[in-house]
Design brief:
The chain is mostly beta strands and 433 residues long. The protein is 12% helix and 38% strand. The protein folds into two domains: 231 residues, Jelly Rolls (Sandwich), CATH 2.60.120; 168 residues, Immunoglobulin-like, CATH 2.60.40. The chain is built from six helices and 28 strands. Helix 2 runs antiparallel to helix 6.
Length: 433
């Protein structure tokens, strides 16, 4: 190679970190500052599964999934159990056929509908108690005979609702619930803030009565595969298969986030920042069997980083890949920074110390969820510069305690870089000890 060609190629390589962001911008990959991570959700098709999520319960109740049995009754108190007795004098769920086996009545969905009449103006909150199941409560707070998103006042997370100021009048309500297995029970309660006591729906002594007996409807799941639990994602081998296999309608679903700090349950707070929703999912916390994959370019500033520790916070498994040798892929053993390939409740998994020279590195962070609530958080600790901060957090980057993330270049940008001879840039910038 001539000196001039060598000089030109060297300049191109030295300028890659200046040219690359510009190409990303002009290619339309970076329309706003909050689009650092490109996050894609892959959702396993459900078939006719046992009901163990609110999403599946709604599908059965809407008639989308086939029913095995149906039942209906009315109750003066919303205090239900799978079987009533002198010891537990609550109303039984209607229609349960008590047939033993893998598709028995331990798996059903239901609704309770009615109208609450507020006789005593005041402050109230609400709670549902449901054994071996999930439940949610909608209350027509604005009394327009419909349920808006804000009127899902109890999303089934085991806590009381917010306190509501209720005027006198009638408020329609709807409770949706499901039972996974074992004995089912459901009790709806309100609490009068003035006296601090809880009362069952239908007990008017606390200030709220039922306008009439509540209607209870149950639907048994006609389960195609009673061994669906055996098909739940348990590792990344199964999770990665969703990238090329059939997904639920509407998936894969791709969105953008400034940081990777997502959940499919209610927006709780971590020590870092409020969690955001998983792209394509809401905060109901009842989607299962999915994979979430985030990609972007990790930007290491001048001077590089030494002995940084990356962290994955997940429920269930999490994985962080960084193209440490900058060969354009994430296939090398040295690219695996974190591999936490297990079913587990929420937990942290830290990398070994990682050192990277100044540069831009392809990065992928992913987590999978088998069943239950999910969390996926990607963060880094730069040693003496502070604690863990979210990857892509602009404030942490400005303070020198975090690392920036910019979008991957589009195919147009990559084509231009390839034409200029800038990519792939094969230099070993970093190491993992």
């Amino acid at each position: 190679m001539s000196d001039g060609a060598s000089l030109g190629l060297g300049c191109a390589r030295r300028c890659v970190h200046t040219v690359l962001p510009l190409l990303v911008l002009f290619a339309g990959s970076l329309p706003t500052a909050d689009a650092s991570w490109k996050i894609t959700t892959y959702l396993h098709p459900t078939g006719n599964p046992p009901i163990f999520s609110m999403r599946e319960a709604e599908l059965y109740l809407a008639g989308v999934k086939p029913q095995r049995f149906a039942g209906m009754s009315t109750v003066p108190l919303v205090d239900l159990s799978e079987s009533s007795s002198a010891q537990f004098p609550t109303s039984p769920f209607p229609g349960l056929d008590m047939v033993p086996g893998p598709t028995n009545t331990d798996n059903f969905a239901g609704r309770v509908t009615g109208t609450l009449t507020v006789n005593t103006v005041g402050q109230y909150d609400f709670r549902l108690l449901s054994g071996n199941s999930g439940s949610q409560l909608r209350l027509d707070i604005n009394q327009d005979d419909g349920f808006e998103a804000a009127e899902l006042i109890w999303p089934g997370v085991g806590l009381r609702s917010e306190v509501l100021n209720l005027a006198a009048g009638n408020y329609p309500f709807e409770i949706t619930y499901f039972n996974q297995r074992n004995t089912a029970s459901l009790r709806a309660a309100y609490r009068a803030i003035a006296d601090g006591q809880s009362y069952t729906f239908g007990d008017a002594s606390g200030g709220i009565a039922l306008a009439a007996d509540a209607t209870v409807t149950t639907l048994g799941a006609d389960v195609t595969n009673p061994d669906y639990y055996q098909e739940l994602i348990k590792n990344f081998s199964q999770a990665d298969a969703l990238r090329t296999s059939t997904n639920e309608p509407g998936f894969p679903f791709t969105g953008s986030r400034e940081v990777f700090n997502v959940t499919n349950t209610f927006p709780i707070f971590t020590t870092l920042a409020p969690l955001e929703s998983v792209p394509g999912l809401d905060f109901s916390g009842d989607e299962n069997n999915f994979l979430v994959v985030g990609r972007g370019l990790l930007v290491v500033p001048a001077g590089g980083i030494s002995d940084a520790v990356f962290r994955s916070t997940t429920d269930d498994g999490g994985r962080l890949l960084i193209d440490t040798n900058q060969d354009g892929d994430l296939l090398d053993s040295g690219d695996v920074i974190i591999l936490d390939d297990a079913l587990s409740s929420i937990h942290d998994e830290d990398s070994l110390p990682v050192s990277l020279a100044e540069g831009t590195y392809l990065m992928e962070y992913s987590f999978f969820e088998g069943v239950g609530s999910s969390v996926g958080v990607a963060s880094v600790n730069l040693g003496g510069r502070g604690g863990f901060t979210l990857l892509g957090d602009d404030a942490a980057v400005a303070a020198g305690t975090g690392l920036d993330v910019v979008p991957e270049p589009t195919s147009v940008a990559l084509a231009v870089l390839a034409f200029l001879g800038i990519v792939p840039v094969r230099r070993t910038f970093g190491k993992r000890r």
